[in-house]
Amino acid sequence: MTDRPGSGNDEAWTDRYDDAAGPLVRLYAMTSGRARLPDAIGRLDLMAIVQPTGAQPPVFLPPEQRDLLALCGDSAQPLADLASDSGLPVGVVRVLLVELLAQDLVRITQPAARTPGNRPDVRLLRDVINGLRAL
């Protein structure tokens, strides 16, 4: 007899696998089912800079949002770093940050838009490449 779900021995299966997996919270539960950002916000770039405002958070703030504020500390952090350090998917972090923005707990600065006339200096790029090769 195998210990698979529905095999009549569900308790042995869940004891073996559920405990090893630890607590599981569905991602949509963290974002209250929201997967998209409001149109007014647009798209948050991975390199968007998140900085806490220093405002006192409300008594009830979801733990994931508290963790993001703690990861910021007193300094500015890129969105990509927050997602990486928190272990949450970028999409979830974006939604949670927009909620923190709405509560005036963080400021988010998008990187400058790239235009054809706004290109980096070719000499600078060559110096960077040469420096990397020298390593």
In CATH, the homologous superfamily of the largest domain goes by the name: Winged helix-like DNA-binding domain superfamily/Winged helix DNA-binding domain
Give me the number of helical elements. Answer: 6
For the termini, the CA-CA separation is: 59 Å
Order of helices and strands: HHEHEHHEH
CATH topology of the largest domain: Arc Repressor Mutant, subunit A
* Morphology call: elongated
β-strand amount: 5-15%
Biggest pleated-sheet summary:
3 strands, antiparallel
> What's the CATH first level of the largest domain?
Mainly Alpha
Poorly predicted residue ranges: none
Which CATH architecture of the largest domain is right? Orthogonal Bundle
Content-based structural category: mainly alpha
Mean pLDDT: 76
Widest beta sheet: strand line-up: 2-1-3
- Oligomeric form: single chain
What is the share of helical residues?
Answer: 40-55%
Which value, in Å, is the CA radius of gyration? Answer: 21 Å
The count of DSSP E runs of length 2 or more, i.e. the number of strands, is 3
Number of domains: 2
Task: Give a quick summary of the entry.
The protein is mainly alpha-helical and 135 residues long. The chain has helices at residues 10-21, 27-30, 63-72, 79-86, 90-102, 122-134; strands spanning 49-52, 77-78, 106-109. The chain has a three-stranded antiparallel sheet with strand order 2-1-3.
Architecture overview:
The chain has 135 residues and is mainly alpha-helical. It folds into two domains: 30 residues, no CATH class; 101 residues, Arc Repressor Mutant, subunit A, CATH 1.10.10.10. 44% of the residues lie in helices and 7% in strands. The chain has six helices and three strands, in the order ααβαβααβα. A three-stranded antiparallel sheet has the order 2-1-3. Helix 4 crosses helix 5. The chain is elongated. The termini are far apart. The model has no long low-confidence stretch (mean pLDDT 76).
